[in-house]
């Protein structure tokens, strides 16, 4: 009986690439470390900027970690996970993206040494999770027992902006604007981030940045004959087209005489005039429409003295409805005064070739806009990123558990606490827990390097002062730095930024360490 030939069994598609075991771990760890190193030099008050140029020649200049990693167009799947860490950090607390990325890279570097020492990935993961738990304990212990008054919140905002491009205006002045904005929209215990909007415009120096108690939108009047300013305004927000209604089905009309044509035109004109008449009789002074307004309707609205804006962005329409107290109307039938909002003033101002519209006072005062100015697009873009972070950290400090000392102080406290607790952990897991503390130390060490200090001496001095005083951080002075109490210098961070950085970095690092097989389709 002839034996049958064993046919090969193909599980993967032809052309798939597979990397297994240590080779897969090494590749992933190298990629993660490379991404972390790309943003390392941007950390701290003396951090440097990155210039990123895409394939079309668009230039972005920033030291914001999330922006850098997003613009780098990273393809390696493990490296992409660190980009996601930065994005999560940005979404959750608004700052600390570089810290989270650097910590992830350092955890991977420590894991590489542990793998070389024959520690199993599962042991490393267990040790890292234990280290993260101890880190959260240390952060809780470092929360400052102080009232979060305006002075402290200004310090929080200023700390987040230190080292970022703010043009010709000081971080302190911008921080005060941020705190004013947050205080203005505070309603009860929780603060709604959506009530603070940012709008940028070039053509003036950064010092012209101001806080507008209301909403500013980038929209011009629907008709040049409309008023440029309306006081004590009744506002309608519409989600409908102000144009001739079209039927659902396709139909053709056969017009055989001039009288029929005139009748059709008259009927159309009556419909268009009807929109303006309905709004005017309802007492509406200003219309914000998220869809089209026919030019003829715009003319009739202008004749009625109504100020109108068409094709308003949905996000702006939502903000305007919230700010003015108006309902978003999909129809003008059966409208009532309760459907409209009210503001003290709506006025249009010219900036270069564009018009901006300011909606201020009344119910709109519950929302505010930080109107950011700058000489160039690069300046206002980086200023916007800095101010976004500042707003987020102030809200995080108020909403999510207070503040802790900055300048590397909390990180030293974390590593100190982890090392003291690691002594009581049995087995090889202790090595992973201690490695977690070493990874945390990389953050103040990087701060020291970027400040021009010797990193080894700085860590030694930090530990010595922390053991003696209970607080110690890297304080930048000119081109060098010193070890001192960061609270005395007003360097304060939200505790939520530290908590999120530890949590997200640990999750990403442990996930990458556990991977021993990479299968990539062509």
UniProtKB/TrEMBL annotation:
Cited Pfam families: Cpn60_TCP1
Skewed-composition ranges (Polar residues): 14-26
GO MF terms, alphabetically ordered: ATP binding; ATP hydrolysis activity; ATP-dependent protein folding chaperone; unfolded protein binding
Keyword Ribonucleoprotein: no
Key word Chaperone present: yes
Region (Disordered): 1-26
Keywords for the protein's UniProt record, in alphabetical order: ATP-binding, Chaperone, Nucleotide-binding
Matching PROSITE patterns: TCP1_1 (PS00750), TCP1_2 (PS00751), TCP1_3 (PS00995)
InterPro entries noted in UniProt: Chaperone_TCP-1 (IPR017998), Chaperonin_TCP-1_CS (IPR002194), Cpn60/GroEL/TCP-1 (IPR002423), GroEL-like_apical_dom_sf (IPR027409), GROEL-like_equatorial_sf (IPR027413), TCP-1-like_intermed_sf (IPR027410), TCP-1_chaperonin (IPR053374), thermosome_alpha (IPR054827)
Signal peptide: none
Family, per entry: Belongs to the TCP-1 chaperonin family.
UniProt-recorded name of the protein: Thermosome
Organism: Halogranum gelatinilyticum
């Amino acid at each position: 009986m002839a034996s049958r030939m064993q046919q090969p069994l193909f599980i993967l598609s032809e052309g798939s690439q597979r990397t297994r075991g240590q080779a897969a771990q090494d590749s992933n760890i190298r990629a993660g470390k490379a991404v972390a190193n790309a943003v390392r030099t941007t950390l701290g008050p003396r951090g440097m900027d990155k210039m990123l140029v895409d394939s079309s020649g668009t230039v972005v200049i920033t030291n914001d970690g999330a922006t850098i990693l997003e613009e780098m167009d990273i393809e390696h799947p493990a490296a992409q996970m660190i980009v996601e860490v930065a994005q999560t950090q940005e979404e959750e607390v608004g700052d600390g993206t570089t810290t989270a990325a650097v910590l992830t890279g350092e955890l991977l570097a420590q894991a590489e040494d542990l793998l070389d020492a024959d520690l199993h990935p599962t042991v490393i993961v267990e040790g890292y999770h234990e280290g993260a738990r101890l880190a959260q304990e240390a952060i809780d212990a470092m929360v400052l027992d102080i009232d979060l008054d305006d002075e402290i919140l200004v310090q929080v905002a200023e700390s987040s902006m230190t080292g970022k491009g703010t043009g010709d205006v000081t971080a302190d002045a911008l921080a005060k604007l941020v705190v004013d904005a947050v205080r203005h929209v505070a309603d009860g215990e929780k603060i709604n981030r959506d009530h603070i909007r940012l709008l940028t415009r070039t053509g003036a120096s950064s010092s012209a940045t101001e806080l507008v108690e209301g909403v500013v939108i980038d929209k011009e009047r629907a008709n040049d004959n409309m008023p440029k300013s309306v006081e004590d305004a009744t506002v309608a927000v519409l989600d409908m087209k102000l144009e001739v209604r079209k039927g659902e089905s396709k139909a053709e009309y056969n017009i055989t005489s001039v009288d029929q044509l005139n009748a059709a035109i008259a009927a159309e004109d009556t419909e268009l005039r009807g929109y303006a008449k309905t709004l005017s009789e309802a007492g509406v002074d200003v219309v914000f429409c998220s869809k089209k307004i026919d030019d003829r309707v715009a003319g009739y609205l202008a004749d009625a003295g109504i100020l109108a804006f068409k094709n308003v962005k949905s996000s702006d329409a939502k903000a305007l409805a919230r700010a003015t107290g108006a309902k978003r109307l999909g129809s003008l039938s059966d409208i009532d005064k309760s459907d409209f909002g009210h503001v003290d003033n709506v006025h249009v101002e010219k900036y270069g070739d564009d018009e901006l519209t300011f909606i201020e006072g009344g119910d709109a005062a519950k929302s505010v806009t930080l109107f950011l100015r700058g000489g160039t697009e690069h300046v206002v873009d980086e200023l916007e990123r800095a101010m976004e972070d500042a707003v987020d950290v102030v809200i995080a400090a108020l909403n999510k558990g207070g503040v802790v000392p900055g300048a590397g102080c909390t990180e030293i406290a974390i590593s100190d606490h982890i090392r003291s607790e690691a002594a009581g952990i049995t087995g090889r897991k202790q090595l992973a827990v201690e490695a977690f503390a070493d990874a945390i130390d990389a953050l103040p060490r990087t701060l020291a390097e970027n400040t021009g200090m010797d990193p080894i001496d700085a860590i030694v001095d930090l530990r010595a002062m922390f053991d003696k005083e209970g607080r110690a951080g890297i304080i930048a002075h000119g081109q060098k730095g010193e070890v001192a109490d960061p609270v005395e210098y007003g360097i304060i961070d939200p505790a939520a930024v530290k908590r999120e950085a530890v949590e997200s970095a640990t999750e990403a690092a442990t996930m990458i360490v556990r991977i021993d097989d990479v299968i990539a389709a062509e």
